[in-house]
Amino acid sequence: MWIRSTMAYRTSFVITVFGNLLLTGLDFVAILLMFSQVDSLGGWTLPEVAFLYGLSATAFGFADLVLGSMDVLGGRIRDGSFDTLLVRPAPVLAQVGADRFALRRLGRITQGVLVLGWALVAVDVEWTVPKVLLVPVVLVSGAVIFGALFVAGAAFQFVAQDAAEVQNAFTYGGNTLLHYPPTVFGKDLVRGATFVLPLAFVNWVPAAYVLERPYPTALPEWAAFAPPLVAVGCCALAGLAWRAGLRSYRSTGS
C-alpha cells in the first residue's frame, strides 16, 4: 500500500530519492573535507575510510529500508493504535516494519553503493578469493546486525513508549560511528562496539582483514569471518527482546 501510494506521484518520488541521496551523501562530504586538510585519518587513507563508509552505509541502508519505520511503534503504543496490529492475521513485527514504508530510502543505499564501488577500485589491496567473497557476506551480515538493532530498539519502546531517539542513537548513531576508523576513538569505546554492541563486525573487523591492518581489539584472525555468526546471535537476542516486549504490552488502558 505504501509503495503504491509513493509511486502514484513518480516525479515527486524521483525527486525525493535524489534528495535523500544528496542528504545522506553529506556524511561522506564531511569526510572529504577532512581529507582536504590531512593525508590520513587515524592512519587510514581516504580510500580505506571510504571502504569503511561504503560497507556501513550500504548495510545500514538495506536495514533502514526494511525496518526503518520501527521508531513509529512508540506512537502507536501511546495512542492505542497498536491494538489494530494485534488482531490482524499477519506477524506483528512484519506489520510494524511495513508501517509507513519509505521507498525514498533507496537513496541512502544508492549513495552507499557508489562510495563502496569507488573504494573497491581505489583502495590498495591485493585481492584474494577469501577477500572478494567476504565483501558481500559482510554487507548481508551488517544489514542483519543493524536490523536486529532496529528490532531491539522497538522492543525497548514497549517499556519506555517514547524512546524513538534512544533507538536512533544506537542505529543511526552506530552507523555514523562506523564511518570512521577505530583508531580515532578511545579503546573503551572500541571494546564496547566489539564485545557489548558488536557493531565492529559490520565493517571494522572484516575491513581490517581485507586491508591487512591490525584488528581494532585483540581478536583471533578468523574473527573477520565471524559477522554471519554475530548476525545470527544478534537476531536471536533481538527476537527474545521483541517477544518479551510483546508479552508485556497491556494496551493504553483508555
How would you describe this structure to a colleague?
With 254 residues, the protein is mainly α. It has one domain. The protein has helices at residues 2-7, 10-35, 46-67, 73-79, 82-86, 92-98, 106-122, 129-160, 164-177, 187-196, 204-210, 227-248. Helix 3 (46-67) packs across helix 8 (129-160) and helix 8 packs parallel to helix 12. The chain crosses the membrane at residues 12-38, 50-68, 109-127, 133-156, 189-210, 222-242.
Structural topology:
Layout: H1 2-7, H2 10-35, H3 46-67, H4 73-79, H5 82-86, H6 92-98, H7 106-122, H8 129-160, H9 164-177, H10 187-196, H11 204-210, H12 227-248
Quick structural overview:
This is Transporter. This protein has helices at 2-7, 10-35, 46-67, 73-79, 82-86, 92-98, 106-122, 129-160, 164-177, 187-196, 204-210, 227-248.
Features of this protein?
254 residues, mainly alpha, single chain
Give the overall form.
globular
Total E-strand runs: 0
Element pattern in H and E? HHHHHHHHHHHH
Largest sheet: none
Distance from N terminus to C terminus (CA atoms, Å) equals 29 Å
The structural domain count equals 1
Into which percent range does the helicity of residues fall?
A: 55-70%
Number of helices: 12
The pLDDT mean sits at: 89
Proportion in β-strands: under 5%
Q: What is the alpha-carbon Rg in Å?
A: 19 Å
